[in-house]
Amino acid sequence: MFSTADLFDANEGKVHVALPIFQSYGQKKQFYGQIYTVKCFEDNTPVGDTLRNMNGKGKVLVIDGEGSLRCALLGDMLAEAAIKNEWEGIIVNGCVRDSVALNSMPIGVKALNTNPTRSVKKYPGLKQIEVNFGNVFFNPDEYVYSDEDGILLSDNPLF
C-alpha cells in the first residue's frame, strides 16, 4: 500500500502531479509501475496490440488519446487482455466503455470519462514516445503512481 500524498511529501521537488481530471474505474484503486506509452487518436489498434501481445508485469500503460471524448479507447475485452498479461494499470487521456464491467475487474484504470462508441481503425498510433497531458510529461520507462488522490510521476522508482 502507498499514498501519493505521502510519496509527494517525501519527494517534493522531485515528482510531478497530473491535474485531477481523471475518473477511476476497476477494482484496483492503487497501481504503479514503469510507464509504457501509446499515442493514438480515436483508434485503439495500438492499445489492443500492446495489451494483447506484451507482458505488462511492473508496467502501466499510458494512452494519449489526445483528450478525445468522441469514442472509447478501452473496454472490457481489452481490460481482460491487460489482466491476463499482468499490466499493473492503465491511464487514458480519453474515454473508456463497458464501465460497469470494468468496475468489476481486478485492474486499475484512470480515464477522462465514458463513451459507448467504439474507436475507428484508420490511424496508426505511436508507441514509447513522450506524451503530454494533465499538465505533465509521461516519459517511457519513468514511473507513475496512481491512487484515490491522483497521479504522481517520478524519474526513478520511489520504493
What does this structure look like?
With 159 residues, the protein is α/β, with parallel strands linked by helices. It is built from four helices and twelve strands; from the N terminus they run αβββαββαβαββββββ. Strands 1, 2, 3, 4, 5, 6, 7, 8, 11 and 12 form a ten-stranded mixed beta sheet that branches. A two-stranded antiparallel ribbon has the order 9-10. Strand 11 (143-147) and strand 12 form a beta hairpin. Helix 2 packs parallel to helix 3 (76-84). The longest helix is centred in the first third of the chain and has 9 residues, at 45-53. The chain starts with a helix and ends in a 5-residue tail after the last strand.
CATH topology: Glucose Oxidase, domain 1
| CATH architecture classification name | 3-Layer(bba) Sandwich
Structure class: alpha/beta
Give a count of the beta strands, DSSP E runs of length 2 or more. 12
Q: Mean of residue pLDDT?
A: 97
Q: Oligomeric form of this entry?
A: single chain
* Shape, principal axes of CA atoms: globular
Helical element count?
4
Please state the CA-atom Rg, rounded to the nearest Å: 14 Å
Order of helices and strands: HEEEHEEHEHEEEEEE
CATH homologous superfamily placement: Ribonuclease E inhibitor RraA/RraA-like
Question: Major sheet, described briefly?
Answer: 10 strands, mixed
CATH C-level: Alpha Beta
